[in-house]
What we know:
Number of strands: 17
Distance between the termini: 54 Å
Structural class: alpha/beta
Shape: elongated
Strand content: 25-35%
Largest sheet: 6 strands, mixed
Radius of gyration: 28 Å
Strand order of the largest sheet: 2-1-3-8-7-6
Number of helices: 14
Amino acid sequence: MANAEIVAIGSELLLGQIVDTNSAWMAQRLTALGVNLYFKSVVGDNPGRMKEVINRALERADIVITSGGLGPTQDDLTREIIAEVTGRKLVFDEILLDQVESHFKRRGRTMTPNNRRQAYMPEGAIRVKNPNGTAPCFIVEDSRGVIFSLPGVPVEMKWLFENEVEPYLRRKFNLAEVIHYRVLKIIGVGESAVDDKIGHLIAHSSNPTVGVLALPGQVDVRVAAKAADKEEAMKLIAPVEAEVRSLLGNAIFAVDDETMEKVVGKLLREKNKTVAVYEDVTCGLLADRMRSASAEHFLAGFISNGTSSLRAFLGGAREPDRLAQTIRDSAALTDELAWCARAQAGSDFGLALHSIPDPKSQEQNLARGETYVSVTDGKTFKRLTSTMAGRGQYDRTRMTLNAIDLLRKALLDGMS
C-alpha cells in the first residue's frame, strides 16, 4: 500500500492567520483511497526550510502532496524548490501561460507581468490545468516518489484533488484497497473510562484498528478497516463495533456524521413533540442547537442575563408566593424555568439550562461552577447537575450537549 505525506506551504499558516483545513480534507480523501498518511508538515515561505521539508518527505513517502506557494508573488517558491529538490531546471511553458491568460480573459481582467511566473514548472513535469484559478499545477515523477503541487486556495485544491490527483493515484499505484471507518459517539463517559472499557481492543486490534478521540462533552471511538471495498470493510468493522456497543451501551448516542442535534431532531419528528428552552450563561447556544435540530419542533428560546430578567420570565410561575424561596434553591429554580418555558411557548417539553460560574475560576475549559439542567412535560421532571460552569466556548458546548442529551433520554424513556 502506498504511503503519502502532505506538505502545507505558507508563512500565514505558521503565523495562525489561516487555519490549515486543506490538509485535514486531503487526509480524509487519502484515507478513503486506501493510502497511508503517516506525516503532515507545515512550512513557511523560506527556501531553505522548504527544501529540507520536501526532501525529507520524498525520503519517507511514495506520494508527496504540496499545497500553496504557486501564486505570482515573490514569496511563491514551490515551483523553484521542487525543481531544485528533484534536480531539474525550472522551464517556461507556453501551454501553462495560455492557461493563465485564458483565465484572466474569462474574468475580463488584465494580467499583470508577474503572473508569467506561474507558467514555469520543473523540466519534464506533467502539467495539470486548473480551471478554477490562475495557478497551474504539475506532477513530478521523481526516482524517490511522486510530487503533486496543488494551489492553497481550498476550492481550487479540492477540485484538482478529486479530478486529477485521485484518478492518477488509482492508476499509478493500482489502488485496490480502501480504508473505511465507523465513528461511535459517546456521552457521559470520560476518555479514561472509555479506554478502561475498550483498551484491549485499542491495544490488540490490527485490522480493524480502534482509536479514541476526546471532544468537549463527548468521546469518539473510531473503528477503521482496510479492505477491497466499503462493503468488505464494514464486514470487518461489524464485530468490533458490536463489542464496543456491548461495553458502552446507551452511552453511544450517534454514529459517523450524526450529531446530538440530528439524533434529537429525528426523535422529535418521530414522536411529533415540540420543545422550548431557557438558558442563561450559554447565551443562546442551546436555542441555536435546538433550532438546527428541528426548526419546526422548536417553538421558543428564552435567554436571561440577570436577576431582573429571570424574575420577569418567572412571572407565570406555578407558585408565585414561593418564588423568592425557589430562586434561592438552584435545582428547584431550574425545574421552574423548564416549566415556564413549556407553559409560555405552549410546547410539549420545556428544557432549562441554568449555570452559576465560579467567579474565581479562570479556566477556559472545565471551569468550576454549578450547572443545573431540567426537562419537563408539565407533569414529571428529569434532572442533571454538574460541578462545571464556564463561559468559554468549550464549556458552553459541553453544557448544551449535556442538556440536549437529557431531552434525548426523556424522549427515549417515553416521557409524555
